[in-house]
Amino acid sequence: MAKILLVEDDTTFSTILEGFLKKNGHQVEMRYNVKSSVKSLDESIDLMLLDYRLGDGTGLDVLEEVRNRGLNIPVIIMTSFNDVRTAVRAMRLGVFDYITKPVNPDELLMVLKDALNHNSEEQIPSTTKKLPEEESSDFVKGVSTQSKKLQEYINLVAPTDMSVLVRGESGTGKEYVARSIHLKSNRANKPFVSIDCGTLSKELAASELFGHIKGSFTGALTDKKGQFEEADGGTLFLDEIGNLSYDVQVKLLRALQERVIQPIGANKQIKVDVRVIAATNDDLLGSSASGNFREDLYHRINEFEIIVPALRDRGSDMDTFIEFFVAKANKELNRQVVHLSKEVKDIFKAYDWPGNLRELKNVIKRMVLLTPGDTAESSALPDEMVLSINQHKHHESHPNSEHVAADLKSQSEAHERQLIMDVLQQVKYNKSKAAQVLNIDRKTLYNKLDKYGIS
Ligand SMILES: Nc1ncnc2c1ncn2[C@@H]1O[C@H](COP(=O)(O)OP(=O)(O)OP(=O)(O)O)[C@@H](O)[C@H]1O
């Protein structure tokens, strides 16, 4: 039995969930907004189930507080299908997993079990973790031209000591690439230390990287080794490097140039031999989001750049990845899925996979879980995924019916927006009625109005 903090502002849905979780032996505390859930955070909670959109903020605000307080609680985000992109990104911020609404009970139990069973090191994608080498058997190389190029670059740069900047969309496998480089380098039998700069608070980033000595600031109760020292002789992977504050960037540049670090509060310097691989899904110098990334540091970490292709651009690899993730899910869930129906294959091909490999892996795991026999049907896919593809097909066969937008996502969004506007007009802008006609709850309608800028 686990103690679960359930944060969901749709009271009907949260009562249903509460009943379901209790029936499955858990103890549940319910909260309905960011404010009250933050007040209830403490070490007795084993797991959090967080709605993404809450009345006074988002689930990520709660998550930030969990992190700031140093609590090691696995968090599962519940999100609408339209927010998958955000949910995948949220995993970078320490979310254990996400599930899409409408929540499927079997899927929820599977994700809960995974989260509760993970050993404490893996409970939350922690800021630092060393990766066992045998995991490399999990790496699918792919056969497309893009994958061959990627592999070629990995092989080329691995044996050198160059700093590498790995760029790519969320969930494309940047950390896998970094690990691959490490395992093929002369440093392979030394530590690979991964730090997610996206989860480091501003205050703690310098101490996490460079260490501190006891008493150097409030809360520094003992001496602490920084991750640079932990990675000595090996590789330090700095994920989401664009999130480092300006001050820390200055310190990092110095560490890279002079190969020495100075723990906070220490008056002596420590020599370190560390290869740095950094990753970002931003254009570090070009985008306003990372507007103040230092150019000198950028050039120092970008001695060699590797761009990891998005899943939708990996052509023939798609089948290899599907096969791999199905086999993995079969093994984990004790299922025997060997075929995908034609419809599932078509949907997989047409979908644009904003969350890339991470999303594919999750969708497949859910599909395998919901497939008792040997053939996976589209009924085992998230409803809205199927719907968005069907809408896309409709647009293709009626190209003049509306603007033809550039990609699948914007097409289905344009369609949804139009539908909402039509219904609102029909019901004379009575939102409760509109929600009824559209067969969604009012909160979902409000979220959509907000999203599409309909007032
Ligand atoms: N080559 C691969 N073979 C098999 N699985 C892979 C491969 N690359 C990535 N994955 C899977 O996809 C998931 C996402 O990979 P990873 O965390 O490396 O992506 P990322 O680009 O670093 O993500 P983010 O941008 O969120 O930091 C991993 O959990 C892993 O299971």
Description:
- With 455 residues, the protein is of the alpha/beta class.
- It folds into 4 domains: 3-117, Rossmann fold, CATH 3.40.50; 128-309, P-loop containing nucleotide triphosphate hydrolases (Rossmann fold), CATH 3.40.50.300; 313-380, Helicase, Ruva Protein, domain 3 (Orthogonal Bundle); 398-451, Arc Repressor Mutant, subunit A (Orthogonal Bundle).
- 44% of the residues lie in helices and 15% in strands.
- It has 18 helices and 19 strands.
- The protein has helices at 11-23, 34-39, 59-68, 84-92, 105-117, 145-157, 174-183, 202-210, 227-230, 246-258, 295-301, 317-333, 342-350, 356-369, 383-397, 408-426, 431-438, 442-451; strands at residues 3-7, 27-31, 47-51, 53-54, 57-58, 75-79, 97-100, 128-130, 164-167, 192-196, 211-212, 224-225, 235-239, 260-261, 270-271, 275-280, 304-307, 339-340, 375-376.
- The strands form 6 sheets. A 6-stranded mixed beta sheet has the order 8-10-13-16-9-17.
- β1, α1 and β2 form a beta-alpha-beta unit.
- α12 packs across α14 (356-369) and α15 crosses α16.
- The longest helix has 19 residues, at 408-426.
- It is globular, with a radius of gyration of 23 Å.
- Residues 119-136 and 401-406 have low confidence and may be disordered.
- Adenosine-5'-triphosphate binds next to α4, α7 and α14.
- Residues 91-92, 138-140, 168, 170-176, 239, 279, 281, 357-358, 361 line the site of adenosine-5'-triphosphate (ATP).
